[in-house]
């Protein structure tokens, strides 16, 4: 029986699912496409979380995960010992590489540790929904697909920063990444959880060392060479997001500075792919304008209101801001409902907008350091 949505609420949900739902690939039955998968986990001093990460891979419903490789980047804790006790293959680098990409490439290119058809990469503080790999694998069936990634929900949602990050994920992944997916250019295959075609990844030389965000740099390079990245919103991972301002600041600056490094690295080459160039140009423009908008909304506008100078341009900017608020609220609550975090999504919406001026400030700091001072960030530091 094919039931149509009958309540007003259900009709809204059905409409949003139609607008923002995942288009694209046809899921291929596992009987006809059932490739082997090897998991690669770069780790540095992750004794507190590595066991849960490995166990979440062992608990996957996908039947052909044949190996789990932990790249121990010269940890000085028990990361390697714990991984071995859970029957993971542990590859230890000769010395600390300083970046996630170099640790990964040590295992992939120098030690040839992954010989499976597909390679699952994930952070050592991330756990997976039981069906995550099973849902990602069919996305890799289409020819020239480099990678596929899924939705991200914070593993712990307690502090202000974790709740704000939840709101950010629900809104930005729920809107931006789905929009990118519809257009056919997902801007980044998430480093915390992605799956790759192993041969293609090796052919491309592994993960780039030229920026601090190897996942984004590889995604862009793949597009420019004719490869695709897919997004599967029902494949969910749960990373440990920053719980304090210090860690949050470090992570956001790493993301923004890495993004700017990618722009500097590839320059106008990205515009050879018009869709890729559009999104990159849009994010650079939005990042530059956002601090100015917040200065206007939080400083100039209140002063103008007090002085009775509420002019037409001010009305337009305020109207656009409230339209953005409305859209973000609908999407955040919808995605919160889909991912069983509806109540926390409500707080996440408000906390996300409270910290948005801070993120705009951090983007300005990133531009100042990377493009004005030209002091490129080179060390990958989680800060946990």
Features:
alpha/beta; Spore Coat Polysaccharide Biosynthesis Protein SpsA, Chain A; disordered N terminus; 2 domains; globular
Give your account of this protein's structure:
By secondary structure, the protein is of the alpha/beta class. The chain folds into 2 domains: 104 residues, Alpha-Beta Complex (Spore Coat Polysaccharide Biosynthesis Protein SpsA, Chain A); 232 residues, no CATH class. It contains 12 helices and 8 strands. Strands 3-2-1-4-7-6-8-5 form an 8-stranded mixed sheet, with helices on both faces. The longest helix has 33 residues. The radius of gyration is 21 Å and the shape is globular. The N terminus is likely disordered.
Summarize the structure.
The chain has about 375 residues and is an alpha/beta fold.
How many beta-strand elements?
A: 8
Fraction of residues in helix? 40-55%
Total domains, how many?
Answer: 2
Q: How does the helix and strand content classify structurally?
A: alpha/beta
Going across the biggest sheet, name each strand in turn: 3-2-1-4-7-6-8-5
Which outline best applies? globular
Give the integer mean of the pLDDT values. Answer: 91
Proportion of β residues? Answer: 5-15%
Radius of gyration: 21 Å
What are the low-pLDDT stretches, counting only 5+ consecutive residues below 50? 1-6, 22-30
Tally of contiguous helical segments: 12
H and E order: HEHEHEHEEHEHEHHEHHHH
Distance between the termini: 51 Å
Largest sheet data: 8 strands, mixed
